[in-house]
Write a structure and sequence with these properties.
Layout: H1 2-7, H2 11-36, H3 42-75, H4 85-99, E1 104-108, H5 110-120, E2 127-131, H6 138-147, H7 153-162, H8 167-174, H9 187-197, H10 202-212, E3 218-221, E4 228-233, E5 238-240, H11 245-252, E6 256-262, H12 270-278, E7 281-284, H13 289-298, H14 302-308, E8 312-316, H15 331-340, E9 349-353, H16 359-367, H17 379-383, E10 386-390, E11 393-396, E12 399-402, H18 404-421
Parallel strand pairs: 1-2, 1-7, 2-3, 7-8, 8-9, 9-10
Antiparallel strand pairs: 4-5, 4-6, 11-12
């Protein structure tokens, strides 16, 4: 009964078990004939020997395929080991279900994207995160300048979001040194930098780190070009460098008019283009509008593939405005900026927050020049998009973040609805 339960529903394993039984029958019958039949012609002896050998080969190959099938299911994406046979059965079938999940491409960067990925991985292992590489501040900026590598910070966050590792490993890779010459440097960034040093390139380094951490899905840099951000403010001032754009906007008391990437011909990673072509859903955001989301859309091939794609296209709007980037922005201002830098055919659905935020918390954020992103009633009609308003907020230690589980649930409802309508 236990044996049947373990193979129930897995037709590939059942098929190889049946093949193994057939091989066993051939071997037993031919060996029995050779041992117990008194008179055999030379031809009959040869035939039975060949049948016995053939049966043994079938048995060996069938067992090999059964083992490989179980290992594929257990190790595809990730696996937590347990001595409980029932746990192994559950893990195996969970892996199978995740492997059959929809193909989702998530585009963005920063903490917003990694927060969403934590929720999505509960529904599918077919996730591709396309991550911005314009960061030039903090530890990432230092490694970028010293080693000539792409900034690892956002990539690291997305890898950890999709990984199934022990808490100690998560803590280790997020550890930030507090003293000495490594002060403010992140161990995970150093890990990825070391991996880059022993690999054939940054893309390979990211893949190796993903393999080590048993990541569900893929994490890809949007481009391998050394990308720099350039913002033109509404007062005409031009600012280069992702890390200083918000700061200079506040200093100049002027908002961003346009954002550009240098070089302007930065080419998208081929694997990112393939992922967009094969996607069932494309999710843009959440994250910093001008420094994490829009730069990805400016890389050659990204916006074009999104527009051509028949996948459902979703934009996840930020819950709060970001000082120096989206001061005073309504939902429609986010869409204006998004479409201005890409196309008004970029999204079909918008997910926006409408949950209650306490007055006390609003005042705390107002001190940091941040307010909730509000919306007007005619936004849906004006932009020809369907807007899903819902409670997508998680508040912890007085910090407002997207609720990864709620957000993922809404996204998967939209994907299911879209599949049924086709």
């Amino acid at each position: 009964m236990i044996f049947y339960k373990k193979v129930k529903g897995d037709y590939k394993i059942k098929r190889w078990i049946l093949t193994c039984i057939i091989g066993l029958i051939f071997t037993i019958m031919s060996c029995g004939t050779l041992v117990y039949k008194e008179f055999l012609s030379l031809k009959e002896i040869y035939i039975n020997i060949l049948l016995a050998i053939g049966g043994l080969i079938i048995i060996y190959y069938s067992i090999y395929k059964i083992i490989r099938r179980n290992l594929d299911i257990l190790t595809k994406g990730s696996c937590k080991l347990s001595v409980n046979p029932k746990s192994h059965y559950n893990i195996k079938h969970e892996r199978k279900n995740l492997m059959k999940g929809p193909k989702i491409v998530a585009i963005g960067g920063g903490t917003g994207l990694s927060t969403m990925l934590r929720g999505l991985k509960a529904y599918t292992s077919n996730i591709t995160a396309i991550v911005t590489v314009g960061d030039d501040g903090g530890g990432s900026g230092t490694l970028r300048e010293d080693l000539g590598m792409l900034p690892p910070g956002d990539i690291r966050n997305c890898i950890l979001a999709l990984a199934e590792t022990e808490p100690i490993m998560q803590d280790l890779l997020q550890y930030r040194f507090k003293e000495g010459r490594l002060k403010n440097q992140n161990f995970g960034n150093l890990f990825l930098a070391a991996m880059d040093g022993i690999s054939g390139g940054f893309e390979e380094a990211v893949q190796k780190m993903s393999d080590v951490l048993a990541v569900k899905g893929k994490v890809l840099p949007v481009t391998l070009d050394n990308m720099v951000l350039k913002a033109t403010l509404k007062n005409g001032r031009i600012i280069e460098g992702e890390s200083i754009i918000p700061e200079q906007c506040l200093k100049e008391e002027s908002s961003i008019d346009t954002i550009e990437i240098i070089p302007s011909h930065s080419k998208a990673l081929n694997e990112a283009i393939i992922a967009l072509k094969e996607a069932d859903a494309i999710v843009i955001g959440p994250g910093s509008l001008y420094t994490s989301i829009i730069p990805n859309l400016l890389v050659q091939g990204i916006t074009e593939e999104i527009i051509k794609s028949k996948a459902i296209k979703i934009y996840v709007c930020n819950v709060m405005t970001q000082p120096g980037e989206t001061d005073g922005y309504l939902l429609e201002h986010h869409l204006d900026a998004l479409f201005k830098h890409s196309s008004n055919k970029l999204v079909d659905y918008v997910i926006a927050n409408d949950s209650y935020i306490s007055k006390q918390l609003k005042e705390k954020y107002l001190d940091k020049k941040s307010i909730p992103v509000y919306h007007r009633d005619n936004t849906e009609e004006k932009y020809k998009v369907k807007i899903i308003y819902d409670d997508i907020v998680s508040i912890k230690n007085d910090y407002i973040r997207h609720n990864s589980d709620k957000l993922a649930g809404i996204i998967f409802k939209l994907i299911s609805k879209n599949k049924k309508s086709k």
